Inverse folding.
């Protein structure tokens, strides 16, 4: 019912920046809890950041102060601005949407972020 498509991943040098984008369709975007997760090879998927339409964002301790999540309800998009990137940020990044009332949980296809010199 909800479709998510990520973009903006790529190769960046340590200390550099990238902005990931996620476009949503097929749902009532303003009521969705949006988030970014990431998964490195051989590791569990971990939460990076979440944002609702009415509360302040939440961040994993590992990215706090470096990453910023934001959303544009009119465009039905969510973004992840990543600054001061480190090699340990290398992972596949996934967009996520949750519908609290229906317990719906939706995932994008993922976009690769590689931080290397």
């Amino acid at each position: 019912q909800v479709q998510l498509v990520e973009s903006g991943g790529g190769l960046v040098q340590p200390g550099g920046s990238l902005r990931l984008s996620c476009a949503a369709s097929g749902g009532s975007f303003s009521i969705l809890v949006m988030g970014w997760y990431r998964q490195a090879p051989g590791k569990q998927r971990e939460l990076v950041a979440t944002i609702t339409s009415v509360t302040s964002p939440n961040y994993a301790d590992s990215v706090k102060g470096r990453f910023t999540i934001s959303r544009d309800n009119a465009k039905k998009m969510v973004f992840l601005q990543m600054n001061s990137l480190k090699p340990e940020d290398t992972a596949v990044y996934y967009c996520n949407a949750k519908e609290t009332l229906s317990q719906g949980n939706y995932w994008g296809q993922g976009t690769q972020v590689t931080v290397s010199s």
Observations:
- The chain is about 0% helix and 50% strand.
- Residues 30 and 73 are 6 Å apart (CA to CA).
- The longest strand covers residues 91-99.
